[in-house]
Amino acid sequence: MKIKDIAELAGVSVATVSRVINNSSKVKEETKNKVLEIIKKYGYEPDFSAKSLRKRSSNLFGLVMRRNHITENDSYTHPFLNGILEYFFHNDLKLILDSHEKKNCIVHYEKLIKSNLVNGFFITDLEDNDERIEFLNSINFPYIVIGRNNKNNFIYVDPDNELGGYLGIKHLNEIGCKNILFISGSLGPAVTYQRLNGVLNAKKDFNINLDIVYGDFSRKSGYDVIKKINLTDYDGIFCSSDLMAYGVYDYMNEKNYYLPLIGFDDLPSSKILKISSINQNIYQIGYNAAKMLHYLSSGREVKNVIIPVDISIRESTLKFKK
Amino acid sequence: MKIKDIAELAGVSVATVSRVINNSSKVKEETKNKVLEIIKKYGYEPDFSAKSLRKRSSNLFGLVMRRNHITENDSYTHPFLNGILEYFFHNDLKLILDSHEKKNCIVHYEKLIKSNLVNGFFITDLEDNDERIEFLNSINFPYIVIGRNNKNNFIYVDPDNELGGYLGIKHLNEIGCKNILFISGSLGPAVTYQRLNGVLNAKKDFNINLDIVYGDFSRKSGYDVIKKINLTDYDGIFCSSDLMAYGVYDYMNEKNYYLPLIGFDDLPSSKILKISSINQNIYQIGYNAAKMLHYLSSGREVKNVIIPVDISIRESTLKFKK
DNA sequence: CTCTTTTTTGTAATCGATTACATTTTTATT
DNA sequence: AATAAAAATGTAATCGATTACAAAAAAGAG
Q1: What is the Cα–Cα distance from B265 to B312, expressed in whole angstroms?
Q2: pLDDT bucket at B25, cuts 50 / 70 / 90
Q3: Max Cα–Cα distance, chain A, nearest Å
Q4: A206, A238, A243, B225: which one has the fewest Cβ atoms less than 10 Å from its Cβ?
């Protein structure tokens, strides 16, 4: 069933049918209704390729995922995709999921662009010395970067890590902690500094003592760091990642000595372990990224977006509340 | 840059260029090399829409995800997609991710088919009285169902739940358990019976006592069920879902009385909690589903596939090993 | 060297939509 | 009722690839 068939059945020309479908110019009400009726009756859908070819534009957007058979943490995928899909669903857009190996991935983006398959794409997991950076700077094609980057001015959407750092300290202060240990991630990635800044801002606002030590975001590093610490020196611990908080939790279990504990990322396991954590609203990040990419690709103006974070309060701090 | 440009630059006709690209019929070695050189030099990629339109077929396949802003467990998404993408990557296929709300989702599949956007699709989360079943039976279009269904004979790929049930009991037996409690999921879904069958088969093979009680797969139901049980009657517990195992674990923590414990699904949190579990190899399911759909859509024969499961052995049983 | 066969290449139709431009129909104006 | 202006519709070109068929070039046969 193609447009020509509908045209014949409705006794009009293909141009008229097209105009009805696309609402592109005035069609007499009577004609329009007849055409719509036939379309509905036969369940006609315009051919995707023909439409894209002629319009030189599709309603497809690309997300090139890094393929990794096994990851320590893959919990972002689902809420992120859901956020994108929510927006896409309501705007009749579709997502192409492609994948790349770390090396040689530029070829993939180039193919996507040159074959006119997508109207734009999302960039995730961009690292500081990522080979994609140069490429992204060199192209004139719509894309949105997920996560801020120190050195470039891409259009991005990012969680408010600074707020997260602030909220963690604020909450510990609220339940009465006065001597807080902050286990930061390794210096390097932008998030480390953002979270640290939030923590330092909170220190100014609340009357607390704060010590800072450094891990590398992993569970093992959390364990290793806390092992060298005298727990009794503190009355509250805030980790810059959930995994590090799990490491700390392991150690506290071992010693059977517990302090209020907050993580950062709100991984699904934190719910299970009942550890308080800073929630990054990955869903919202996806939703906003989708909207921004849509706007960008249709020539509308787009501003960077910072998504507020929440704190998920659980037993790990709640049970210490006075 | 289009095929005509390449043709002119190489001093041949578009037909020849097309033949080179598609290896569709003999082209003189010399001509071929010249064309390939030009293509490479200018980084030409055939237009996706034009190609699909003419060939009446794309290399796109669809996965329509149920959108759910918040789920208790979304850990399947990442490994499943990764499995699909691994196969797709190596076969130059692409995945369209679409989403639907529960009601009215048939329209979506119909659109996908009628607009010739995809060559086939995956069906996930099919329930016993799903409205999609009738639809799927009525169409003549390639699709693969993830997860067996009691009442239909779709082409499916599914984890070997029966083997999982068997392996759980086998492992408990190996560490010396003689009086085992199996907490089954609710009667209804096919998985419940499959897992139960495996457990019963193992009972025959090993010399153990086995009691069976029923939860509903949720953490709360695990807790509620175990609460009514006298823990000292048993020396090992096997749950038909990880979530139920977490509920049991909660209770054991409360009572500070531990028995060997195995879950089913191997959610990421089980690694964190160090609870042994049956691993369903979701990645393999994705990979195989992709391969099957590819075969099916290109007219090759396809058989149902059952993916073996593994057991991930952790502290929750290991520490009881004699 | 001519004729046949095979290999290589080119021409033009085609896929199914959109849309510029042309034409017809309708409405408004005098 | 004649003419001008506006609205509705139609014709045909176009998007960029593939491919049936035709034609030209090369190879082989005698």
Answers
A1: 10
A2: confident
A3: 86
A4: A206
